Amino acid sequence: MGLLTRGFSSFLILTGLFRGSSSRTMSLAFGTTTATTTTFNNRIAVVTGSNKGIGYYIALQLASSGLFRQVILGCRDSKRGGKAVEEIQSKCGKSRQETNVSFLPLTVGDKESHESFRRTVEDLHGQVDVLVNNAAIAYKGADPTPFSEQCKPTLDVNFRGTVDFTEELLPLIRKSNDNPRIVNVASMAGRLSQIRAGALKKQFSSSTLTLKELKDLVNQFEADVLNGKHVANGWGNSNYGFSKLAIIAATKVWARDEAANGIKINCCCPGYCDTDMTSHKGTRHANDGAKNAVLPATMEDCPTGEYFSNMQVSKW
Fold this sequence. Notes:
Layout: H1 12-15, E1 23-27, E2 34-38, E3 44-48, H2 53-64, E4 70-75, H3 78-91, E5 100-105, H4 111-125, E6 130-133, H5 147-173, E7 181-185, H6 198-205, H7 211-226, H8 239-257, E8 264-269, H9 286-298, E9 307-309, E10 312-314
Parallel strand pairs: 3-4, 3-6, 4-5, 6-7, 7-8, 8-9
Antiparallel strand pairs: 1-2, 9-10
């Protein structure tokens, strides 16, 4: 059974036609444009960090598409998670009759929380068809925490936590026989060019890089930061940027590893959005930024192992 949108080079993809054999017309959350959609009654989507900002709009757009029976919000804050569910359900209109929106507690970076989330989803639904890893942290520029002390917390959530949670859910995603997808929300800050040492850059971009090797590289970056040697050793000078670089590299590793299982795995940059993370200095609305994640989560003829930015496949 085919999925959602055809092609990926234009904004019109997400406000235009959704193609399929059995269709109806509904108004999508992306705007006022109506779209022809296909209903997939048994598809399950999970979105982490989805009680506000970009993650909220990713969940809203997936729930409004009519392509999922269930959209599950994974959030740390139960009160905000419950409120987000109510808001999304109220905005879904007619699609609410077919798509249920729910919330489960999730703290990315907490292994027990990952396991509890997986057990609950497995008990209730048996599988996951789409996972969008959006949860992340970033220290503000004015934060007085020393750079070396920001390193481990940032990596533990943005890279290690995301990797562990994804590995926890992969067995459920492999059970999907209906276009399984993983989308990792990265950032333009994760650009490969931040790595100054040519040898290191080649390791991250290698087509034979393994997840174990990537974890070792991340550990080495942390060790060099703690020893004050990261700049001299050719690393970048941003903990957040490096964490997103590592997630982009992980995306490409997973895409190769899971190709035989039919799972399409991509990452995206939502752009500089008006969110709490940017102290609302971003120039792009979070609803528009979210479309860069929804696109590879739902498009027809989806590539794998790619980095999406500005609604198209872009150079890392």
